[in-house]
Write a structure and sequence with these properties.
The structure holds three protein chains of three kinds.
Chain A lengths: L3 E9 L3 E9 L6 H12 L18 E4 L2 E4 L5 H4 L4 E5 L6 E3 L2 E2 L2 H9 L22 H9 L7 H5 L1 H5 L6 H11 L7 H8 L13 H5 L6 H17 L4
Parallel strand pairs in A: 1-5
Antiparallel strand pairs in A: 1-2, 3-4, 3-5, 6-7
Helix pairs in contact in A: 3-7, 4-7, 7-8, 7-10
Chain B lengths: L1 H27 L4 H7 L3 H29 L9 H19 L1
Helix pairs in contact in B: 1-3, 3-4
Chain C lengths: L2 H35 L3 H8 L3 H29 L5 H26 L1
Helix pairs in contact in C: 1-3, 3-4
Classes of the chains: A alpha+beta, B mainly alpha, C mainly alpha.
């Protein structure tokens, strides 16, 4: 194991360049540790995001050696071949500066996919009774743990090829709501996720499922949406 | 793995779409088959034919994978469908190569 | 295109894919059989000419291709060449018509 790491870090906006830094290597070290070291000891002008640093919030997502990952949960040993690292901002999002991306479009698409719950019960009504064992609830539960880190969105080729494509995270969230029996927006939601910008544009590359740090499978949810949309179209309901 | 199967699926589809008009044209000539068959004896044509069979098998394999992922209930083993698609391609390519 | 239209195209693509899966398997088997058997042109035509069953089979094959290939290309043109809108659909419709015409011409030449 080398004593130092040669780390290339993206500096600048959409236009910019990689700058190389030499960072001391430790036995137990994450890529986030490396980026933090650069900012604190080598170049205070480096911009980057993190928060919990324990794999819960998803803020530290960046591209490491070409693949999007949570830097706080990426051990240097796992990715640094011959002591080299390349760190750049998440793909498919505008770069604000250095390793920080503009997440607005990611969340706007979430909203466009009708990724919000809307129910009809009021405070005075009794609780809705939803069986956790019901098929729909189980499907929703399997996909519900998404924290909106944008790693899947970053990994997706269709997002790169089709600017309007809603993306795996937004569609995955829509899928959990399609399976929520309390929700009252189902018809509008299916319309929102159909069409060129929606689930039908997914080509099942499965990069999202491959890279999701929470081991979710947006591909599965999107396949479910495809079936739901097609069925609605055949019934004349779309 | 899945990403590459999908890319092969797309590229093979494009190649087949471009090849088909030519294929239809040759067949539609209504030539005496022997003339056509003699032409196909040329080694370069044999290699091209083998290429076409592989493209077709690759596209079919990738396509079956997509249909399975989109219509069958979701299971983890479906990720290895990518491998099955690749195997199918090789299988047919070999069968054709052996038959040549 | 409307979402209803896009969804119909998607359904048509999957339906034609299922039909083609069967057709291609049969076609590949037939080709391997013919090549392996070293059939001459006359032998092949003797089996295909006037054969109503094979005529019907290959007509279905051509029809399915006419649906499947242009819709497949549509995604490629939109995603890799950023070509969207009516002109794309118009060109693909022409391509579909070309495939149908040339395909049926071939089917007639071999099976009629």
């Amino acid at each position: 194991m080398s004593a130092t790491l040669r780390v290339r870090v993206w500096r600048g906006g959409a236009e910019g360049a990689f700058r190389e830094y030499e960072v001391p290597r430790h036995e137990s070290q994450t890529v986030l540790d490396v980026v933090t070291h650069v900012q604190r000891h080598l170049d205070p002008t480096l911009a980057y995001r993190y928060a919990c640093r324990v794999g819960m919030c998803g803020s530290c997502a960046m591209t490491v050696n070409g693949a999007p990952r949570w830097t706080c949960r990426t051990h240097v040993d796992k990715v640094a071949k011959e002591g080299r690292l390349e760190i750049s901002p998440l793909r498919n999002l505008p770069v604000i500066r250095d390793l920080v991306t503009d997440m607005r479009e990611f969340f706007d698409k979430w909203a466009r996919a009708k990724g919000q719950f809307r129910g009809e019960r009021r405070r005075s009504d009794d609780f809705a009774r939803v069986s956790p064992q019901s098929e729909k609830r189980r499907l929703a539960d399997v996909a519900i743990e998404c924290i909106g880190c944008a790693v899947c969105y970053s990994a997706c080729d269709v997002v790169a090829w089709n600017p309007g494509y809603l993306g795996p995270a937004a569609l995955n969230r829509a899928w959990t709501l399609v399976n929520d029996e309390r929700d009252t927006q189902q018809a509008a939601r299916l319309r929102a996720v159909a069409g060129d910008a929606g689930c039908l544009s997914c080509h099942t590359h499965m990069s999202c499922t491959d890279r999701c740090p929470k081991a979710l499978s947006p591909t599965a949810g999107i396949a479910g949406l495809k079936r739901a949309v097609a069925a609605a179209a055949l019934r004349g309901e779309l | 793995m899945s990403k590459w199967v999908a890319h092969v699926h797309r590229v093979s589809g494009i190649a087949l779409a471009l090849f088909l008009p030519a294929h239809f044209w040759v067949l539609g000539q209504g030539l005496e088959m022997d003339g056509v068959l003699r032409w196909t004896e040329q080694p370069l044509v044999k290699v091209a034919e083998w290429g076409l069979v592989v493209l077709l098998a690759a596209h079919l394999g990738g396509g079956l994978r997509v249909l399975a992922l989109e219509f069958l209930p979701w299971r983890d083993w479906q990720k290895s469908l990518a491998a099955a698609a690749a195997a199918l391609t090789l299988g047919w390519g070999l069968a054709f190569a052996l038959a040549l | 295109m409307s979402i209803r239209g896009e969804t119909r195209l998607w359904i048509a693509q999957r339906a034609s894919a299922a039909v083609l899966a069967l057709c291609v398997l049969v076609h590949l088997a037939v080709i391997v059989y013919a090549v392996r058997g070293g059939l001459t042109g006359a032998e092949i035509l003797a089996r295909t000419r006037g054969n109503a069953a094979w005529f019907a089979f290959y007509s279905v094959f051509v029809l399915a291709v006419t649906v499947h290939a242009p819709i497949g290309l549509r995604a490629v043109l939109g995603e890799w060449l950023a070509w969207r809108g009516r002109s794309r659909d118009a060109v693909l419709l022409l391509f579909a018509m070309l495939l149908a015409w040339m395909g049926m011409r071939a089917v007639l030449a071999v099976f009629a």
